[in-house]
Design brief:
mainly beta, Neuraminidase, five-stranded antiparallel β-sheet, five-stranded mixed β-sheet, 5 helices, 28 strands, globular, binds 2-acetamido-2-deoxy-beta-D-glucopyranose, Serum_paraoxonase/arylesterase
């Protein structure tokens, strides 16, 4: 009898978990390469800057100025602290293709491409040649750019820059480090140095690639959302825990959305600005692993992600040997075959898929941003060349 109770209790505890895993694996199955169906609901779309940009994880829109910031890191092939690729730096590769934050002026008509896309020059920054940017965030009021740097030597840091858009210069102000920001991924600015930051894992790949993968596959809630203040580091605290926390965005001043790449889906929280606390409200299931989130000026939640996580892992593993100018085998390792998925969500409209591609046209989508007024949007791709520009 007692044993039966134990079984029942164990089942009650595990049932939602088993169901979640079932949904994930059935999602993977439905999205398997042989069954994958492309979809496009944009009026117009094209891949821009194929020859100039590679491995852009982030795109961030500054609608007021009509510019986008892009964070692109070709070095991610050999160094990915989230996926767990660690090839030691080689003299051969050094300086060949370095990481950049770019400013893209998408709103000025008839601008030559070379004028429209400019790399930000980092000044007063010692290690500009060895920079591994991940999430970026811009605070318009103070022209402050926050960049997560996945450092090889000094652990993960947040770099704070003062940006002059006109001169394309980012002056380094400080490096911010905190033990509670151990696997930082995305940043949402609350203004004046106050930030919400996600940690993607409890056990980062740098500490143990194996345990980090177990954490991902078992969907253990080791990721977190942390509040921090770069002017008052002692105010830092953990607000929520969830599996593989990735993108973070605010729908309005009291609602925070966080992507979980392994659950998979989006968790909605009520944010209390006075107490700086989060209260879980609801979960939106998605047919793909959501990577990053943004919110457009009409209040829609925008997202992009990975329909078939195993394909992304395969690409990230192969990339360790990628040499764009290397042997046939090294060139093959630079291929990107991981599919893309782009969608939007609103309370009224629900979840709507906008674009799906098997990776042939645009692979490994991570972020969608949209300028509602100008009717344009952009999608970045973690291991892709160029940026997908869409018109609606
Ligand atoms: C996610 O998107 C936001 C909003 O565009 C951007 O600021 C951020 O850098 C992105 N983060 C990551 C890790 O891709
Ligand atoms: C940023 O990361 C790079 C690459 O790991 C590292 O060389 C550099 O020192 C880091 N910058 C800071 C300020 O920690
Ligand atoms: C904020 O957004 C949420 C989710 O869309 C909505 O339920 C809530 O009513 C909004 N709150 C305000 C104050 O607009
Ligand atoms: C590949 O070779 C071309 C032409 O020599 C050069 O411009 C480019 O920078 C090289 N790319 C890499 C990644 O080494």
């Amino acid at each position: 009898m007692a044993r039966r109770y134990i079984y029942l209790i164990a089942l009650a505890i595990l049932a939602p978990y088993v169901y979640d895993r079932y949904v994930i694996f059935s999602g993977l199955w439905a999205n398997r390469p042989s069954k994958f169906q492309n979809l496009n609901s944009f009026k117009n779309h094209e891949v821009k800057f194929r020859d100039r940009l590679r491995n852009c994880e982030d795109v961030l829109l500054e609608e007021g100025m009509g510019i986008a910031f892009l964070s692109c890191n070709p070095g991610r092939d050999q160094w990915n602290t989230v996926m767990g690729t660690f090839v030691p730096p080689s003299a051969e590769r050094a300086g060949k293709e370095s990481a950049h934050i770019w400013i893209y002026d998408y709103s000025t008509p008839n601008l030559a491409d070379s004028e429209a896309l400019r790399p930000l020059k980092l000044t007063d920054y010692d290690n500009a040649a060895d920079f591994q940017p991940l999430g970026i965030e811009f605070d318009t009021a103070t022209s402050t750019l926050y960049v997560i740097n996945h450092s090889r030597d000094s652990g993960n840091t947040m770099e704070v820059f003062q940006v002059s858009v006109q001169d394309s210069v980012a002056k380094h102000l400080k490096t911010f480090k905190h033990p509670m920001l151990h696997t930082p991924n995305s940043i949402h600015s609350l203004g004046d140095g106050k930030l919400l930051v996600t940690n993607d894992h409890y056990i980062g790949s740098l500490i143990s690639p194996f345990l980090s993968k177990v954490e991902t596959f078992a969907s253990i809630p080791g990721g977190s959302v942390v509040y921090t203040d770069i002017h008052n580091p002692s105010h830092t605290k953990t607000l929520a825990r969830l599996p593989f926390a990735n993108g973070i965005a605010m729908l309005n001043s009291t609602t925070v959305a966080v992507a979980s790449s392994s659950k998979p889906g989006i968790l909605i929280y009520a944010f209390n600005p006075d107490e700086r606390s989060l209260r879980y409200k609801k979960y939106i299931r998605t047919p793909s692993a959501v990577d990053n989130l943004s919110v457009d000026s009409a209040g829609k939640l925008l997202m992009a992600g990975h329909p078939f996580g195993l394909a992304l892992m395969k690409v990230s593993q192969a990339r360790a040997n990628c040499e764009m100018n290397g042997t046939e085998e090294q060139k093959k390792a630079c291929e990107c075959t991981s599919p893309s998925w782009v969608a939007e969500w609103s309370e009224e409209g629900g979840l709507k898929t906008l674009y799906k591609d098997d990776g042939e046209e645009f692979c490994s989508s991570t972020t969608l941003v949209r300028d509602v007024g100008r009717g344009v949007g952009f999608v970045s791709g973690l291991y892709e060349r160029g940026l997908l520009a869409v018109k609606e």
